[in-house]
UniProtKB/TrEMBL annotation:
PROSITE patterns: FLAGELLA_BB_ROD. Keywords: Bacterial flagellum. The keyword Cell division does not apply. Residues 13-39 form the Flagellar basal body rod protein N-terminal domain. InterPro entries: Flag_bb_rod_N (IPR001444), Flagellar_basal_body_rod_CS (IPR019776), FlgB (IPR006300). Transmembrane segments: none annotated. Belongs to the flagella basal body rod proteins family. It is found in: Bacterial flagellum basal body. It comes from the Eukaryota. The keyword Lipid biosynthesis does not apply. This is Flagellar basal body rod protein N-terminal domain-containing protein.
Length: 132
């Protein structure tokens, strides 16, 4: 029973980590909204999640050794930043004259969608965890 719960939680842990990566990319876009020639980036969430799961239901992470110097430390798990190969350029609806492709309305909307999605997914996941 615990194994089934663990399987569900590993998927959601991975999905949250990928969503966090996407939020960081969106935050970078927002931070560079006034930078001339900055190109807005985004990621394909589905493709990145599949790559992160690595077919085993676990995140495919680089070898990272973390050592605990005290028994009171909480073991940490490494997360990998998105590589620039995984990031895509966003095509602007209304390009600016300075070459910047960040559109604040789009960025804010995408940034706000993530908490709503997480809330909805956690609501859907609750019955599955209760059955496990």
């Amino acid at each position: 029973m615990i194994d089934r719960i663990g399987e569900h939680l590993k998927f959601y842990q991975t999905a949250l980590a990928v969503r966090q990566e996407r939020q960081e990319v969106l935050a970078s876009n927002i931070a560079n909204a006034d930078t001339p020639n900055y190109k807005a980036r985004d990621m394909d969430f589905t493709a990145t999640l599949k790559a992160a799961l690595g077919g085993q239901g676990q995140m495919a992470l680089p070898n990272t050794s973390l050592s605990l110097t005290s028994t009171r430390h909480i073991p940490a798990q490494a997360t990998r930043p998105p590589s620039t190969d995984e990031l895509l350029y966003r095509v602007p609806v209304q390009p600016s004259l300075d070459g910047n492709t960040v559109e604040m309305d789009v960025e804010r909307m995408q940034f706000a969608i993530t908490p709503c999605t997480i809330k909805a997914r956690s609501t859907w996941a609750s019955p599955a965890l209760e059955k496990a």
